[in-house]
Design goal:
By secondary structure, the chain is of the alpha+beta class. It has one domain: Beta Barrel (Hypothetical Protein Pfu-838710-001). It has 5 helices and 9 strands.
């Protein structure tokens, strides 16, 4: 359907989250893996200006993704998303660069995926905190999944990691282009640095 429907939450306790996942008996659909995400744009940043994303991801596979502008509907973010697996990550990167694109941002994370009533639950360990991302077919599905996980729905996040990095830079006086573990080594990041609050498990 080429449509992404998702919402995020920031959490304070990884162990509590994993206990909840275990108690619900959620099947793991992807074991924890390191992700390298490279966001591409033209030198004039025309994709950024149009609220579009061109991303090359490397984890177990290499995945090329286009995302259109996001819209909020029923409290969650909807956007066009077209993804395809490519055979060779480095060749795909060279192809994009040959077309005039360049890496405008890198973000890293460790991700594991679980399934909850048809909703994909992604556990994201990022350089600036622990997040879960819920992706499904409707806002109602995501709300029900969040309730089962004990999330405070009022603390939902409809922003990308790119937008959260920009908030962090503005709030802390940093100027990081990349959300990398190297950049954030030794830094203690509070949710307020991202204009967020924890959606702690109940």
């Amino acid at each position: 359907m080429d449509l992404e429907i998702e919402v995020k939450f920031i959490l304070s306790d990884h162990s509590a989250l994993m206990r909840r996942i275990e108690s619900l008996g959620l099947p793991c659909t992807q074991e924890r893996v390191f992700e390298l995400n490279q966001r591409f744009d033209q030198p004039d940043r025309r994709l950024f200006a149009a609220h579009q994303v061109l991303r090359l991801r490397r984890d177990h596979n290499a995945i090329l993704t286009f995302k259109g502008p996001g819209v909020l509907e029923n409290d969650v973010l909807l956007r066009q998303e077209i993804e395809t697996v490519v055979a060779d990550h480095d060749a795909a990167k060279r192809l994009l660069e040959a077309l005039g694109y360049e890496v405008s941002m890198i973000y890293e994370k460790y991700r594991a995926n679980y399934l909850l009533d048809g909703v994909t639950l992604s556990v994201d360990e990022t350089p600036f905190g622990l997040f879960i991302e819920l992706e499904g077919n409707s806002a109602e599905e995501l709300r029900l999944a969040a309730d089962k996980l004990g999330m405070d729905w009022e603390q939902r996040i409809n922003q990308s990691y790119f937008a959260l990095l920009n908030a962090f830079n503005q709030n802390t006086g940093n100027n990081f282009r990349d959300l990398s573990f190297e950049n954030f080594r030794g830094l203690k990041v509070e949710p307020s640095d991202l204009n967020l609050s924890y959606a702690d498990l109940r």
